[in-house]
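Section 5: illustrative case.
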């Protein structure tokens, strides 16, 4: 069975993608910065360490930039070049919804680099992840009982990372949708008051939402250890959310996988323990 390289194999998307590919009988080479288990290879996109070994003998690959880096093309373009040199047949790139709105945006530069590489490609641009509510936004919920974000009453069509992984798996194991990009969303657009009600119902405790100033978000992100440039990047894309750019829904998950994406209520029910206490 040809080998598929999965970058970020220990994360929410990469871990689920690895599980799905292995369950369907595919050989997976799991790339992670700290390889510690069988089947894993060490790869650090920030330094380029391990690029040659990671792509050697690989038939297809899933690429994503690690979080915390605002200039994503500086990490992804060398990986795309390495895939080309290694003779990889097909690359699926994880981008973000809206990246293609600005040709100069770092993620768009990576998308264009892949499209112009001569490789068979797909680009996935998911909306904001549901999983943020029990990871990145969780400390504020635990400390204050509120989701704290500078996004006003704007809506987002949040997507479960497992649906992103399912879309990537379908593209990596098929060949009928090559050389296309897809904006991935959940089935409905919700504001954060509605999100808070759904989380409250699932957790059996009151969770609210508070719109906060951008400066308060900046302080929180810097206080959590995010680099300054990535903090500013986060504020920019949160500003796009507030402006309404995250509200659109698509049928791309259904088109690629043959099934509808999970609802936020389904996600919340499965992760209710995260918001107890």
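Designed sequence:
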């Amino acid at each position: 069975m040809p080998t598929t390289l999965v970058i970020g194999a220990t994360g929410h998307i990469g871990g689920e993608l690895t599980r799905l590919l292995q369950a369907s009988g595919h050989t997976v080479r799991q790339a992670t910065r700290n390889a510690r288990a069988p089947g894993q290879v060490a790869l650090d996109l920030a330094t380029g360490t391990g690029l040659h070994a990671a792509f050697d003998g690989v038939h297809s690959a899933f690429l994503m930039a690690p979080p915390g880096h605002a200039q994503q093309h500086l990490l992804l373009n060398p990986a795309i070049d390495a895939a080309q040199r290694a003779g990889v047949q097909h690359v699926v790139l994880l981008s973000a919804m809206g990246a293609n709105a600005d040709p100069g945006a770092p993620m768009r530069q990576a998308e264009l680099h892949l499209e112009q590489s001569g490789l068979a490609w797909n680009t996935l641009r998911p909306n904001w992840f549901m999983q943020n509510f029990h990871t990145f936004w969780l400390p504020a919920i635990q400390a204050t009982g509120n989701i704290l974000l500078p996004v006003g009453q704007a809506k987002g069509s949040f997507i479960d990372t497992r649906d992103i992984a399912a879309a990537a798996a379908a593209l990596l194991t098929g060949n009928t949708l090559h050389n296309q990009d897809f904006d991935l969303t959940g089935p409905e657009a919700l504001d954060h008051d509605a999100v808070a009600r759904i989380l409250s119902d699932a957790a059996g405790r009151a969770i609210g939402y508070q719109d906060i100033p951008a400066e308060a978000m900046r302080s929180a992100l810097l206080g959590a250890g995010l680099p300054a440039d990535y903090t500013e990047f986060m504020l920019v894309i949160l500003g796009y959310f507030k402006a309404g750019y995250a509200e659109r829904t698509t049928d791309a998950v259904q088109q690629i996988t043959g099934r509808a994406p999970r609802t936020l209520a389904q996600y919340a029910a499965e992760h209710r323990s995260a918001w107890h206490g």
